[in-house]
Amino acid sequence: MPAATNREDLIAVTRKDYAKLEALIADIPADLAERKFEDDTSIKDIVTQRAHWSGLFFKWLDQAAAGGPVHIPDEGVKWNQLKPYNAELRRRYADMSWDDARAWLARAHGRLLDFMQAGTDASLYGQTMPGATGWTIGRYAEASGPSHYRSAAKFIRSCLKQAG
Hints:
Elements: H1 7-25, H2 30-33, H3 43-65, H4 82-92, H5 98-118, H6 121-125, H7 137-144, H8 146-163
């Protein structure tokens, strides 16, 4: 799927992909959501990771607005260290309930959508993401929302298939 290149398309793909993910997880019971699958990762783990990563997008924007360094993906973390970083996220959020994980994702989605709706084509696609190379703010917003929703849904469908 090609990346959105304007505000209207970004909002549309964000709504569409979140609705698909939300429908997919709506009826998953907590015991199944917390069962470990591939790489010792559960459905709940994927949901909390996606909410966390959405928050990182805003952390990057806040760091840039404060005039400080922007730590992408996170302070002290390089892109080639994502496996251990995500493993740490699984440990950090291990005690979060399934209901709380879904609620966090819904809040993160709402915040991202509000940001997109308040933006313009120029603010989203007329400049690169502070602290990053190449991608626009809109492209980072898409990576933090709908792209993550799609990858989460793919993982969750695989888990559901394995669970039978």
